[in-house]
Amino acid sequence: MRNPAIVLNLKTYPEILGKRGWELAKRFAAVADDTGASIVLVPPTSDLAHIAKLVHLPVFSQHVDAVEPGPTTGWIPPEALLEAGAAGTLINHSERKVAWEEMAKSIPRCQKLGLEVIACADDLVEAETLAKLSPEYIAIEPPELIGGDVSVTTAKPEVITKAVDRIRAANPNVNVLCGAGVRARKDVAKALELGTVGVLLSSGVVRAKDPEKALRDLVKGLR
Ligand code: G3P
């Protein structure tokens, strides 16, 4: 994943399930082609393999399990993500929390396979603890701001700067992203000003009247 970046979590919004998501993924790839911006797509697991074949952008999973491949029903081992064409995965998103012991197993397993990990943290304490597991990225996302109209860069800039400082102090190899309520180029620019290498976002693009146009505006904040 190239920094600075916009990581677009498609979640499981109806607007992006199946064919609708495939079409949107192609339009998002055109934005990356036209602008040179680093855009990462995070589709639902059901669409990951198809989208990974459809576009040349890095595609990340929304979740990964620490199970070994084998007699495990309904789980997602890192090996399955690699075979599906994923370049990495989120883990511990506030909407899909994972026990620390699980992450201590799954993060190194992902990295051994060459999958990059974006570990999500709700707050500063969690961010600092996660830094000890050496994911490539930690995304600080106050849950109460997710899906809202106020960007975390406006509502809680101090949380972002503190997260950057504390994560860097705990593990200088970890890159920091931020997310929640990011929906305009000024939010992206501010996130970089506050010391992150990009943003993790969803509804500002997925639920926009014109998602491609919304993304084209956001990538201008990466400059
Ligand atoms: O994973 C990013 C997501 O939780 C942020 O959501 O809708 O506030 O951009 P949103």
Provide structural commentary.
The protein is of the alpha/beta class and 223 residues long. It has a single domain (5-222), classed as TIM Barrel (Alpha-Beta Barrel), CATH 3.20.20. Helices cover 43% and strands 16% of the residues. The chain has an 8-stranded parallel beta sheet. Helix 1 (19-35) packs across helix 2 (45-54). The longest helix has 17 residues, at 19-35. It is globular and about 45 Å long. The mean pLDDT is 98. The chain binds SN-glycerol-3-phosphate.
Annotate the secondary structure layout.
Blueprint: E1 5-9, H1 19-35, E2 38-42, H2 45-54, E3 60-61, H3 78-84, E4 88-91, H4 100-112, E5 116-121, H5 124-131, E6 137-140, H6 152-155, H7 157-170, E7 175-179, H8 185-193, E8 198-201, H9 203-206, H10 211-219
Parallel strand pairs: 1-2, 1-8, 3-4, 4-5, 5-6, 6-7, 7-8
The structure holds SN-glycerol-3-phosphate.
* Bound ligands: SN-glycerol-3-phosphate
Order of helices and strands: EHEHEHEHEHEHHEHEHH
In the CATH scheme, the class would be Alpha Beta
> What structural class results from the helix and strand content?
alpha/beta
Strands of the biggest beta sheet: in what spatial order? 2-1-8-7-6-5-4-3
Largest sheet: number of strands, sense, barrel closure: 8 strands, parallel
Overall spatial form: globular
CATH H-level homologous superfamily name:
Aldolase class I
| Binned strand content | 15-25%
Number of domains: 1
